[in-house]
Amino acid sequence: EVLYKNGYAQNASTARTRYLSTIFAIQDWYCYPLDDPKGTARISIATVRGLHAFARRRSKDLFSDIEGVPLSQFDMAEVLLAFSGFSVAMLQNLCGFRIERDDQRHMIHMWRLVGYHLGIRDEFNVCRSLEFVQACLKDFMAFTPRRAATSRKSFFMLRKTCIEGLSSAIGCGNDFLYASQYIAFTTIL
């Protein structure tokens, strides 16, 4: 709902723009040093952190007190898990890439630093170690069927606009991405 309310996923076009900007930001984080406060990667992270703060302020009325804060530490940790552990598992198990354990550890460490710079507190940063990320991913995947069964309507709208937006950006049809998403969630671990 946060992405939808803030205009990032209201249709295929806005979703495409939002997700492509995310892809370009991640490319900056992989390609440029994270230890340079004035460098490309850190400027990109600061921009994303600012966008998160803006979205959090605009979305305060979306959830009840029981549901918590939009873009909470938990939400951020979940996204970090997707970009770190889920990505490594997908590259290996779905795409067939062989990634050496040391390289996986380096990737997870890089994401730990990204999480830190995005404002994720250490107790919520899932990228403590490769083994911890893998354990969190296993728990996450075990809970995924229940999450899907209890998701808000906005989750399915977000998925639809994401698939429609990205399918036009990468030149494949919606059916291909729907099938890929199903395969990813049923075979990733």
Description:
The chain has helices spanning 2-5, 12-31, 40-58, 73-94, 101-117, 130-150, 153-170, 174-187. The chain has 189 residues and is mainly alpha-helical. Helix 2 (12-31) runs antiparallel to helix 3 (40-58), helix 4 (73-94) runs antiparallel to helix 5 (101-117) and helix 7 packs across helix 8.
Secondary structure: number of strands: 0
Task: Give the terminus-to-terminus CA distance.
Answer: 28 Å
- Compute the CA-based radius of gyration: 17 Å
Judging from the principal axes of the Cα atoms, what is the shape?
globular
Q: Major beta sheet, specifics?
A: none
Helices and strands: which structural class?
Answer: mainly alpha
The ordered string of helix (H) and strand (E) elements is HHHHHHHH
Low-confidence stretches: none
Helix percent reads over 70%
Which range does the strand content fall in? under 5%
* Average pLDDT rating: 82
Q: Helical segment tally?
A: 8
Describe what is shown at a glance.
With 189 residues, the protein is mostly helical. Helices cover 71% and strands 0% of the residues.
Defining key terms:
mainly alpha, 8 helices, globular
Write the topology of this structure.
Elements: H1 2-5, H2 12-31, H3 40-58, H4 73-94, H5 101-117, H6 130-150, H7 153-170, H8 174-187
Helix pairs in contact: 2-3, 2-7, 4-5, 4-6, 7-8
